[in-house]
Amino acid sequence: MTQYQHVIVGSGLIGSFIGGIIGQSARVSFIGRSIWLERLMAGITLTDYAGTEAEHKAGKGECLEELPAKIERSVIWLTVKNTALTELLARLQPVVAPDCVVVCCQNGLGAAALAHKYLPGIRVLQGIVGCNVVWDESLKRLQKTTEGEFFLEQPESLAPELTKALSTVQHKLLTLCWRQDIEAVAWAKLQLNLANSINAIVNKPVRAMLLDRGCREVIAALMDELLAVTAARNIRLPKLTRVPARYLSAVLRLPDWLFKRLANAMLHIEPNARSSMWWDLQAGRVTEIDYLNGAVAEQGALSGVSCPINKRVADQVKSLQRSTLVAARRPLDGNTLKYQLHLE
Ligand SMILES: NC(=O)c1ccc[n+]([C@@H]2O[C@H](COP(=O)([O-])OP(=O)(O)OC[C@H]3O[C@@H](n4cnc5c(N)ncnc54)[C@H](OP(=O)(O)O)[C@@H]3O)[C@@H](O)[C@H]2O)c1
Questions:
Q1: pLDDT tens per residue across span 305-337
Q2: Is there an atom of ligand 1 within 6 Å of 105 CB?
């Protein structure tokens, strides 16, 4: 039987990183924008904070700007943002053969369900990228800047050749972690991603945001709402960080002096780092807010749990998305944000 091919669909930061890793042991094709395809054809370095390195150079025939007429016997690693997913799935529908497997790698909630809807009869698995990846243009380097594994849904049965194909994502740069409780992992990752919107709203680096107790209190309130939703659904959140999920908000609420002492690891971030939602907002792009804080509010409503802070934060990000003055706004302090969100 022929081996599975690998196709990265939407090769930006995550797609190029995952594809670069798969490329260490298998053939991989990339579908993406020309800027990324040129980088991949010129050759990129993959690194992590510990100094591990790998190189990948894609061949011309492995880089496409458009979907091919047919994709057969392939693992399709779907790595566009949630905001691009519906349009892409509609275009994939007539192209994907039934012997393909689709791995959805989006943050937040809803991507795999959407893929199931558009690709009936195709096996869809959920993947969760637990780390952050950034691009360094001067060094042509994709850098994994935080700890975090690649969590992959473990279905009840999987043919050995498919297990082998999916395991090509295992590398010393990225640990593959099979999970039967992938829904719980998605919620646990979402808990960590709730701060992205606050970073976008307050318009200052992540480190400065974490050193502002008012901002931390808002993030803690967002997390408490998510914990109430998962508790109502009997979802047990796995531990993705040094601090277990249920204690994170208590740590965030500590006074500055104690927070700095106890949460030192959280502050080990590059002083100018910003969340991807901040970058999207500044560039006038639609953000993933509906799949993050918006999804918590929506799922809360379905479970009879009110999530007013997540809802107001989602509304505030959407209002910034519509504003023409977003790039020129001034940084906001945490106490002002608390007041705006009626959180006092
Ligand atoms: N970056 C991280 O550190 C990180 C970590 C964990 C999880 N995630 C999640 O992973 C997902 C991907 O994030 P990312 O940061 O990799 O995003 P990204 O860098 O924007 O990559 C997505 C790429 O797909 C392209 N694209 C969109 N529609 C396409 C289409 N129809 N055909 C071909 N290419 C298309 C985008 O181009 P345009 O920009 O032109 O649309 C972009 O270059 C998100 O859900 C994100 O939340 C990201």
A1: 999 999 999 999 999 999 999 988 999 999 999
A2: yes
